[in-house]
Amino acid sequence: MNPLHVLSSGLSAMPVNANGVPFDMSHIYASGNIAADMLSNIAAEATGRVLATRLYNMTQDSGMKEFLSFLIARDTMHQQQWMAVIEELGGLKATLPIPNSFPRENEALEHAYYCLNTSLDKPLPKGRWSEGQAYDGVGQFTAFEQPDILGQEPDLGNARSGSGAQIEQIQVPPSV
């Protein structure tokens, strides 16, 4: 519990986040580009849904679970709404890159489709994102192996079950 909530407001509603930081709109992104803003909204709703599912998994209180279940459902609705706006704009392929109004001939396109490998001693893993046709249908993904990288590879481990991560992050890879 945040003591400030008791001492300063007598448990009434306060315009602060869960850590007591005052609401100042610094987490709201408005670029003036509708496609960029909708993608930002999708990411924000996805992050909110991850947080709500974590809270849901942490509590045993049935009333809180019911409330969080509602919030999780609303985050689903909002993600779908923002994706529908992207669809009305012609879909992701039509809106990317953002802004799509910037002339491509003014872009250094030789750098637009390669993945830069900064791994110490491993080649770039193969995946849809690192080889083959780019999502926009214009470029081809390639890998650029970067030599002489300093430092060591971090070992972040797998996500815990119930953490709100994707299944692929939770599953332990088969041993070699």
Automatic annotation (TrEMBL):
Region Disordered: start-end pairs: 149-176
Coiled-coil stretches noted in the UniProt entry, renumbered to this chain: none
InterPro entries to which the protein is assigned, alphabetical: Ferritin-like (IPR012347), Ferritin-like_SF (IPR009078), Mn_catalase (IPR007760)
Pfam families xrefs: Mn_catalase
Compositional bias (Polar residues): 160-176
Cited SUPFAM superfamilies: Ferritin-like
UniProt superkingdom: Bacteria
Family statement drawn from the similarity comment of this UniProt entry: Belongs to the manganese catalase family.
Annotated protein name in UniProt: Manganese catalase family protein
Organism: Rouxiella chamberiensis
Lineage, top ranks: Bacteria, Pseudomonadati, Pseudomonadota, Gammaproteobacteria, Enterobacterales
